Amino acid sequence: MGTTTPAQRVLLGEDWRHWRVFFVRAHHRCLGSERPLPYSANRGKESVNRQALDELKQQIPLMGYLQAHDWQPARSLSRGRWMGLCPLHADHKPSFLVDPHKDLFYCYGCGRGGDVIRFAELYHQVRFSQALVLLRQWRGAGPLLDEAARFYGIQLERHPEAVAYLLQRGVRSPELIEHMRIGYAPGGCLRGWLTQLGYPLEALRQAGLVTGAGYDAYVRRIVFPLEGNLYGRSLSASAPPHRFLPGAKGGLYAWDQVRRHPEVILVEGLFDYAALWEAGFRNVTCSLGTHLNARQIGQLCDGPRTAYLAFDADTNGRGQKAAQSLARRLTEQGVKVRIASLPDGNDPNSFFVQDGNARQFQSLLEAARG
Ligand SMILES: [Zn+2]
Question: Residue 207 Cα, ligand 1 centroid: separation in angstroms?
Fold first, then answer.
């Protein structure tokens, strides 16, 4: 057992052997002593340059990437390793082991492990080549997206059409606009601003902020910054209403501020979130659509809580069907679920825009079916 302490052996139990074998193997593979490439090239379309992979991994420490995706260590082990809840499956007691020095993880619950690239594959549920694209974007896009969001924020007050649209959607208070960092993309001026700041055009293209032909991708859109993405809501009826930049939509909106609440309200859209926040609800989060990704499910299941699903009451019943299927899934994971029924044809945003108030919404929650 070498240098393991008795406490570790107890903690790691029988699995310790697998863990060690796993690390030794992973380490060898990274060194390339077993195979010429750490990853079989046929997993991606083009052959993968090992040096480029090593560089990418050096630039994105696993621990930093995990924490940027809301992972929190629950307790420390020897030699700088950490244990926490697994972000890859609904984990109730910490089974996810991270070694920041080796840049490797292993989960005793779901048995999966590897490096930051493997984590990105599993976490975003994408293939190897797509995981590389996401990681490269993540490495390069953070400051760029922040700068774009800042620019859109400045544009908001300069464009009365944007302010008028926000008013019409019930977004009034400067505190809310600041809290959500809401901005406006008029189109045709982001590229100039960012290139003048020294960002290469190619970086703007890669982040999806600028089209292949060099035009601003978001035109006449209200913009909400997300983690690693920007959501754009079109003001024009002729354009697709909802857009994201390429890449994942990320986890639940503002989850860090919401997770401590024993009861959370989950809504579909950011304007629903905005309306509830403005009405004084602070335990609200948003899944950006009715389909939750694995990470969002994992977040809702990361502790004991009750989730109130306040999806749209569409006339075709789509929102309610989605809520029921999500409720089944969450209930299986031990989350208490209540489905709130809004008046027909309403979503939480229109409920408040049509003069609904916080007390009335609270009664809907209290009346929610289990
Ligand atoms: Zn796991």
Answer: 30
Question: Residue ranges of the chain with pLDDT lower than 70?
Answer: 1-48
Distance 66 CA to ligand 1 centre (A): 13
Considering the chain, what is the average pLDDT of its residues? 85
Please give the distance, rounded to the nearest whole angstrom, from the Cα atom of residue 318 to the centre of ligand 1: 31
* Residue 90 CA to ligand 1 centre (angstroms): 7
Distance 110 CA to ligand 1 centre (A): 4
Backbone angles phi, psi at 29, to 5 degrees: -60, -40
Tell me how far apart the alpha carbons of residues 143 and 132 are, in angstroms, rounded to a whole number: 19
DSSP 43-91: GSSSPPPHHHHHHHHHHS-HHHHHHHTT--EEEE-GGG-EEE--TTS--
Contacts of 131 (CB under 8 A, 6+ apart): 117, 118, 120, 121, 124
Q: How far away, in angstroms, is 19 Cα from ligand 1 center?
A: 14
pLDDT at 48: 65
For residue 265, give the 3-state DSSP assignment: strand
CA of 122 to the centre of ligand 1 (A): 10
Kindly compute the dihedral angle of the four CA atoms of residues 157, 159, 164, 170, in this order, to the nearest 10 degrees. Answer: -40
pTM assigned to the model: 0.68
81-102: per-residue pLDDT in tens?
999 999 999 899 999 999 988 9
